[in-house]
Write a structure and sequence with these properties.
The protein is α/β, with parallel strands linked by helices and about 220 residues long. Helices cover about 40% and strands about 10% of the residues. It has a 4-stranded parallel sheet. It has a two-stranded antiparallel sheet with strand order 1-4. It is built from 8 helices and 6 strands. Helix 7 links the parallel strand 5 and strand 6.
């Protein structure tokens, strides 16, 4: 099948789309959307890629699952639709951004502006059933997103990978740290932010690295 995805990503991921696991995954996802409520809405499944073209990619921030409550998930990790409350982890991300850079705390949860500047907000699993956290894990999404990380590592240079929490840090082996910067800390969740997320300064570290390689900084 033809995957609706931004053209530079289509070129980078074309081989993935032909693999048997991906064909099986798409069949599963189509059935799930047909038989129940799944988030994010279908056109937003690959939004992280569409908002952040491969050829403009500078930063990867890894999440785990889309939000599974109505109206929240918008296809970007940690982000939510503009009319929603700011989720607890994102509140802590904004707090750290303020403490790191002095940027004003945003009043909305939509991170699409980051994505448009070259930040790939990538969940490990790109879909989820309504009200069932983790319900689409183990169906092939993790293989797809792991391979995406590896392809970025192989084909790009000087990308910053931000790995928050143990789940994201398990992906570190996919990244060539001779070519890229990996920033690790505790997860911004209220359950763990005090254990090393606050004070980790990922935003200034990212911009310092990008600037040192002659790349444009992110306006967080």
């Amino acid at each position: 099948m033809e995957v609706k995805i931004e053209e530079s990503w289509r070129a980078a991921l074309q081989e993935e789309f032909q693999k048997p696991y991906f064909q099986k995954l798409i069949t599963f996802v189509k059935e799930e959307y047909k038989n129940g409520t799944v988030y994010p809405p279908g056109p937003y499944i690959f939004r992280a890629f569409n908002e952040c073209p491969f050829d403009k990619l500078k930063v990867v921030i890894l999440g785990q699952d889309p939000y599974h409550t109505p109206g929240v998930a918008n296809g970007l990790a940690f982000s939510a639709n503009p009319n929603q409350r700011i989720p607890p982890s994102l509140i802590n991300i904004y707090k750290e951004m303020y403490n790191d850079l002095g940027n004003p705390m945003p009043t909305h949860p939509d991170l699409s502006d980051w994505a448009k500047q070259g930040v790939l907000l990538l969940n490990a699993t790109l879909t989820v059933r309504k009200g069932e956290a983790g319900s689409h894990q183990g169906q092939g999404w993790e293989e797809f997103t792991d391979n995406t990380i590896q392809i970025v590592s192989e084909k790009k240079e000087h990308v910053v990978f931000i790995l928050w929490g143990a789940y994201a840090q398990k992906k570190e082996f996919l990244i060539d740290q001779n070519k890229h910067l990996v920033i690790k800390s505790a997860h911004p969740s209220p359950f763990s932010a005090d254990r090393g997320f606050f004070g980790s300064r990922p935003f200034s570290k990212t911009n310092e690295y990008l600037k040192s390689h002659g790349l444009g900084e992110i306006n967080w």
